[in-house]
Fold each of these.
Amino acid sequence: MSTAGKVIKCKAAVLWEVKKPFSIEEVEVAPPKAHEVRIKMVASGVCRTDDHVATGSFVTPLPVIVGHEAAGIVESIGEGVTAVKPGDKVIPLVNPQCGKCSVCKHPEGNLCSKNDLSMPRGTMQDGTTRFTCKGKAINHFISTSTFTQYTVVDEISVAKIDPASPLEKVCLIGCAFSTGYGSAVQVAKVTPGSTCVVFGLGGVGLAVVMGCKAAGAARIIGVDTNKDKYAKAKQVGATECINPKDFKKPIHEVLIEMSHGGVDFSFEVVGRLDTMEAALACVQEAYGISVVVGVPPDSQNVSVNPMLLLTGRTWKGAILGGFKCKDTFPRLVSDFMAKKFSLDPLISHVLPFEKINEAFDLLRSGKSIRTVLRF
Ligand code: CND
Ligand code: ZN
Ligand code: ZN
């Protein structure tokens, strides 16, 4: 029997309060309104950004269904939807692409003005939510909300992908792979023969390493306080890995010495202020480029001597690797299908969706790269 047009009762992981476990609840998912799409979830990765919400470090309205790195199948569509139809395989988009705003029209930017990330409202574009639990409205998360058997997204926040693609792998194109890879090739524009440094060798950091390698970097130095991350990093292209705890000197000084004057490109993929400062300081003073990828703790500022920039360094950052997601994700999925890159090194664990709290324990204890939750 078709579920189109009806409320669907299903399971979702609700975060009622920060610093509490996710609670698997029965939720009601309303049918999609005009220009909205309801998706049956198939697989969702667990990203540190979801954990930042759970710890209170990334602030978005609660209670909420988080999760943003996923793939699923369209269950039904609202009036006027033309981009997808029921049965299509799709990836929800953290960065919508309305195609009309100044950002969508600009050749470089990707944070569409319809985003729910820079000042999260926790709703659909019309300002309301499609989730209800125990009579309470449950908020959406950065246009996606994927820790649920069904979600609803705006048509501008979904990309149709190859019907043959394995969703339990290409879900990582929804965040980790695109964010990391794009930060190297699209944001930093890493050049052949260059020296790169990647702070943080989690799921996103490893994808940065993959991007640096694909761009032809000669030297890729991984920096992580957890030595267990080095083997994987080397497998995907890091030429050496170092632990800041092994040195008496500040890590940026160590890196300047190792590179004889400063590296060409650096990436902060941890989400800490001290590593953001170190990543900026370790690039070559006249032409080095440093990219902020990690999500910083809410309402905190770095203190930086402007001399670091006056001499010629460039400091930038981007969400989702600077990619215009609706245009780029289908192409990245095609590249994956053509075996231009592998997602296997990023997937350390696969668990049933109900074991979501176990997946977060694995992330917090540094034991996982990406856990993919299957629905
Ligand atoms: P994950 O936690 O898997 O990786 C972080 C890594 O940093 C771990 O391997 C840690 O051991 C390491 N680390 C911790 N402290 C230090 C330190 N002081 N020095 C060096 N290494 C350290 O996280 P992830 O890969 O899922 O995400 C990384 C960051 O990227 C995180 O802040 C997340 O919120 C952010 C992010 C950004 C975007 C974007 O669009 N820009 C998208 N998704 C995630
Ligand atoms: Zn993410
Ligand atoms: Zn737009």
Amino acid sequence: MNERPILMFDSGVGGLTVLREARVLMPDRRFVYVADDAGFPYGAWEENALRARIVSLFARLIEEHDPEIAVIACNTASTVVMADLRAAFPNTPFVGTVPAIKPAAERTRSGLVSVLATPGTVKRQYTRDLIREWATKCHVRLVGSDRLAQLSETYMREGFVDEEAVRTEIAPCFVEQDGKRTDIVVLACTHYPFLVNRMRKTAPWPVDWLDPAEAIARRALSLLRPARPLVREGADKPDLVVFTSDRADTAMVKLARGFGLAPAAK
Ligand code: DGL
């Protein structure tokens, strides 16, 4: 029996939005969820420093957990580090998360699309190249939010969300131009789907909020060798959560437990 887990990586709670989809598609697999909470938030990191940090974290993670595949459930990291990870760890297949600009460009009716992301993701050449490649016929507004990832962390740990702050952060996504309005907002940070109901509530008009979690989970599934149906691999081992800091408080541990994740031994 192959007990190698799927490793899921983010700076914090955001990757849990991908984990929840992955569990639906791969109920027979074991997961190790890694929150680089010592590095959170990634949005403000300089590219080279972030790249070096993540590659060095993975050297340890791969050695300790020997994953069958690794999912970088974070746009801010994926837009800079995928090539480096693949080069450094050629035996591990990696799945990345990139802003869903292509599906948004295919679906928009008004031609006005906004991409809501961390300041890091909106700055990346990778994001700009995606727009040039797939969305030249649309008007794409890039909106970098300084606060939404943290608001989402607070919401998930404490159950509290400052709706006025959400309203302010999403407001620049809504564009009216030549009698047309933005009709799609790409959620290009995995933390944001946790706040989507608050976003719907505080938005000036209804739009489609594109969450790429299911597409990422499908991609991960496509890279796995087939498992025997209904036999959970490594059934005797629990899904784990790894925090990179020693600061993970009880609220965080409780949240992880709610997602069926047991703290990994240090
Ligand atoms: N969840 C991450 C993303 O998808 C970023 C959050 C952060 O660390 O700022 O971009």
